[in-house]
Amino acid sequence: MNKYQNKYQLPNLPLPAPLLGSKTGTFTEYTVTKRMPDIAHRVIKENNFPPEINQNLEKLASELKNGYLQPLKNDHSIDFYHWEKYLEIHKNQRWLDVPWFLAETYFYRLILNITNYFQPGKNHQLDPFLLQKEQGLEASIDAIIYLCTQVEKWLDDSQKQDKPSKSSLIALLYFSLWGNRVDLSLWSAFEENRSSFDIQTQLTNILVDDSFAVTKLLTKSAHNRIDIVLDNAGFELICDLCLVNFLLDSGFAAQVHLHLKPHPTFVSDAMIKDVHYTQEFLAAGSHPQVKSFSKRLNKNINSGRLVLQEDYFWTSPLAFWQIPKLLKDEFAKSNLIIVKGDANYRRLLGDLEWDYTTNFADIVAYLPTPMVALRTLKSEVAAGLKAEILTELATIDPKWLTNGQWGVIQLVH
Ligand SMILES: O=P(O)(O)OC[C@H]1O[C@](O)(CO)[C@@H](O)[C@@H]1O
């Protein structure tokens, strides 16, 4: 039995069917047949791979619309045998007919397989999305300066008052939520600066807001541990690191653990190297507040108060309730788990077709610790919404489920 086959605790409700690309007219279908091929083409365009690799990427792009899953060649990565298991029941199935979450996670895993990411040689550990990640950061420099300055000020205020400010914590939860809108798999870093949104107007677009309940859960403590399951690098990571520096240096948390992806996936998802790159990027700037923010971050990493950890679970097609025991035991030591972003939210719900009014806590009943999800909606998966809100949304914004304009802060405790 490997570590991904432990006996796990399920949601409290019968499980509905998974989202599938074969459902005509859905965003899921659009993603498999259009967005994913586009991403494969972008990988070709933005890297300098030899023709053979590019041909294989082209082949993958062309198979998505109507073709079948191709097997994974043994690339000697740690997760190769896990993937053989995940794929066992999907042999001879079309991309459109396998669960969407598996289709997406496997697509990104195949890109690494094709580009020789795990093999020694020129492309070893070459992040095929690197250019997008770097540009994403550079494009949001004004928002970065604004945010870092703000956090430094809030930390000064907290120190003067000798107690951490709950309203600053709420503001940082909002930043962390809306930072998630800047997702490079939906919008290329080159399109426009998506980080210059107005937080104030976005407050009205939060469909469930448990941020106050989160602040009730957290008080100043020399023992609190907070775990954050991270999502994107770039501007979202900056927002998350603002939250991290504030939690640690205001006294809300004694330790923060960041859970990162072990390899590139979902275009902009953050890895440990992205946290270091971001810290160095901030340190290299000339703005004094940004510099002191980056020093703070560095200090927190070096002192061991900020722990960076990765696990192949985060790049697997598994539902959150299939979390490996070791990781679940880690979470049991935490006071709060913060789960970021759309893809992690889909994992929380198993990417299943829940009725959108289903009680969120009845689904996410399997975690040993209070958990808050910060997610802007970018896929047809949701729970915990009021029926009257659904009726209203259907009239005011028919694309509300996928356009990234709406968010939730949902706490289970
Ligand atoms: O970065 P995030 O918020 O996890 O978004 C990635 C998600 O967004 C999408 O690109 C849009 O649905 C999905 O394919 C994926 O779930």
Automatic annotation (TrEMBL):
It comes from the Bacteria. InterPro entries: ARMT-1-like_metal-bd_sf (IPR036075), ARMT1 (IPR039763), ARMT1-like_metal-bd (IPR002791). Its cofactor is Mn(2+). Signal peptide: none annotated. Residues 31-386 form the Damage-control phosphatase ARMT1-like metal-binding domain. The keyword Hydrolase applies. Pfam families: ARMT1-like_dom. SUPFAM superfamilies: AF1104-like (SSF111321). Keywords: Hydrolase, Manganese, Metal-binding. It catalyses: beta-D-fructose 1-phosphate + H2O = D-fructose + phosphate; beta-D-fructose 6-phosphate = dihydroxyacetone + D-glyceraldehyde 3-phosphate. Belongs to the damage-control phosphatase family. Sugar phosphate phosphatase III subfamily. This is Damage-control phosphatase ARMT1 family protein. It comes from Okeanomitos corallinicola TIOX110.
